[in-house]
Amino acid sequence: MRILLAAALAVTGLVVLQTPASASASAKAPVVTRAALDPALVAGRGAGVDFAEQEAENASTDGTVIGPGRDAYTLPAEASGRKAVRLAPGQYVEFTLPKAANAITVRYSIPDAPGGGGITAPLDVAVNGHKRATMTLTSQYAWLYNQYPFSNDPNAGLLHPDWWITECSCVPDATTPAPEITKPFRPNHFYDEQRLLLGRTYRAGDTVRLTVPARSNATWTVVDLLDSHLVGPPRVEVLAANVLAFGADPTGRRDSAGAIDKAVAFAKRTHLKVYIPPGTYQVNRHIVVDDVTITGAGSWYTIIKGRQADLDTPAPDGSVHTGVGFYGKDASAGGSRGVHLSGFAIEGDVRERIDTDQVNGVGGAMSDSTIDGLYIHHTKVGMWFDGPMRNLKITNNVIADQIADGLNFHTGVTGSVVSGNFFRNTGDDAIALWSDKTADAGNTVDHNTVQTPVLANGIAIYGGTDNTVANNLIADPIREGSAIQVGSRFGAEPFAGRLRISGNTTVRAGTFELNWKIGLGAIWFYALEKDIDADIEVSGDHYLDSTYNAIMLVSEWSVKDLYAIPKVRFRDIRVDGTGTSVVSARVKGSASFENVDARNVGAVGVNNCGAFNFPPSGSEFSLTDLGGNDGGWLVPWMLPNTITCDDRPPVVPPPAPSQW
After folding, report:
1. Among 114, 152, 307, 626, who pairs with 349 as Cys (CB 3.0-4.6 Å)?
2. Which of 516, 447, 504, 450 minimizes the C-alpha distance to 477?
3. Where are the alpha helices (H) located in 242-395, listed in sequence order?
4. How many CB atoms lie within 10 A of CB 405?
5. What does pTM read for this prediction?
6. Cα–Cα separations (whole angstroms), residue 135 to 54, 89, 125, 138, 638
7. pLDDT tens, 182-194?
8. What digits encode the pLDDT tens for the residues 473-522?
9. How wide is the angle at C-alpha 341 spanned by C-alphas 340 and 344, nearest 5°?
């Protein structure tokens, strides 16, 4: 990894607030961003979060700015905005508060232990020069290695030596002489975050300095960003089944699962809510919920925390562990209804990916239910729902630092809404609608923010009927995925009815696909197992600073003559910066374009390879110009199906996005 020694960058056009005279002489005026962008570029899109995001590279520091860089398996690539600040022991980074705050979230990385398993290290927090706390950072939930489903051991050999790998362009087990594979192999998932209440409210212009103590056992500490919050007082519910009355322990020393179960049973009999007051409650298994409302004092105050526990024998679904989580009944048992969860945090203890394990923050099947205002951290998947189920509303939650997905609607979830949620550092798709066996239908994914999914996509739609993806902000996918994917894969039911993708903004999206050795689009359509043949319209999206293509439509080589993407409509799109093309077509089919404006395009506007048969009649993929396509990217000689195939065009990094 190349380390760039530089001062923190001044970012033109971002929100820069004046620092009052009371601030320290070395303080910089605060630069507030959203996904490391000028907030004006994403107005009205993404989640309406209650914090101010500040990138470390824009703050005062005597450390080293690392990045920008987008190559997977490097610290800059996984940082928000692809930059961060690296501190040696004794160094600091200092943020100026843009508005009143009484709490912070710090996103950071520290080294792994030599044999894996993580370390802990201190980080001092001072406000206006006065020390407030020492945070204990950890890498115990970070640092994965190797091939899927990954390892915690940096010294492990290949998990799948019979798989083709791009590092040697070979199948290691079938290669003579055997290739030498560098260890650790494919390190990833470097970052974690930690929250801290400051104990009092500070004013705009006050400074928060994060210093690595000289005594730190971490040879380096990378600070990516700081979120500053103004957290309201704890919420109190008087007329409720208070878990303390049933023996719950708010100190976290004793297990409180049984007490919460008793409170739930009492609340159902008496038609009351369950209230979990401020405290940390130890829960090491699922709390099964049905026809009950459970509310906490707020996610900063009520924390449900558990350790991952071994099961004596594997469960019928293959789970070998259990852990903290709130689960509806299984769909095969009728599922749960009338569940309402709000106002608490779920802190898990998941450090390895075992796909059969039910160690998710929220799971099962929940119909006619709501989940609002949770903070879910260190579980396998924040929320994983196995339907059929209907009418679930998921709003205003924060899901961070997951080993796998952020949220997955798996199998027959219908008439449900995912809105106003914030996802950061998921280990797989941040939001997925997976129509496995039964179609997900009539769902809306709206006004969510996704940042730095380490693997796969920001938002993925795998089959389904009449779904909508609108007004989301998706930034910085890291490897083998895009901001938005529409995929016929993973055994999903076919696309049917309508699919509407509208008003989304993506930034620094499109990653390098290891197996194909090509760059993916910010949005990509992937016909792997079936045609993608439905009423599909993409409108109003903004694709900013795309690493490769803005739009990709593709099939896999082995099925390229079997499946097609016949009729996608694109209209009212803005493309500001591509490393290669606006459109990359690697499949049979067609698409129409209307009012698609593009600038700062790195290669030919349309890279049309079709199905790679190159017939004399032209590409198997055709484009229709419906007018208003500005920027010179779609010119008459390309229409309808001129072959303009450059399999791997050189990448020309575009300038930073700006106002249109």
Report:
1. 307
2. 450
3. 257-270
4. 28
5. 0.96
6. 19, 15, 7, 10, 58
7. 999 999 999 999 9
8. 999 999 999 999 999 999 999 999 999 999 999 999 999 998 899 999 99
9. 160
